[in-house]
Amino acid sequence: MKVVSDTSVIGNLFLIDKLQLLNTLFETVIIPDKVAEELKRLEAFGHDVHSIFQTDILSVKSVKNKEDVESLLEELDPGESEAIVLALELNIPLLLIDEKKGRAKAEALGIEVTGLLGILLRAKAKGVIPSLKPIVDSLIKDAKFFISEKLYKAVLLKAGED
User: Fold this and answer.
1) How many CB atoms are closer than 10 A to CB 5?
2) Residues sharing a CB contact under 8 Å with residue 67, sequence separation 6 or more, in sequence order
3) What is the per-residue pLDDT across 13-24, written as a single tens digit (0 to 9) for each?
4) Measured between alpha carbons, how far is 135 from 88 in angstroms, rounded to an integer?
């Protein structure tokens, strides 16, 4: 399955050395130029991001409809805006995105969304990872990924790890 991704999913998986999960779940992960730029900013924090762009399934594509991107920029950041427009342009039904506003806008435009926790649940369901809890804990500790206690418990319950 081909998907389009915003920055957060790729960046957070990279920060905890779990980027390979995307290889096991998807055929191709397409990112727009702005998302590529946002990922490259991790270098300012001492991370070597070359491995992100070396993965076989990652593809960077330019958005054609700049007007649609501009209209989304009134509510969303550049990476989210381009990711949504790219998913529409390429007719890709699934967008990997975590931010609430971006998810809501994508869904309103008919795009299915899943975030980082949804990807981890898919990986667990497919037997790609044996346990979700250590990965979520690493996201919180090492990537400073915010998750409410309520959502944390709900995700672990859904994964059968309560």
Assistant:
1) 28
2) none
3) 999 999 999 999
4) 31
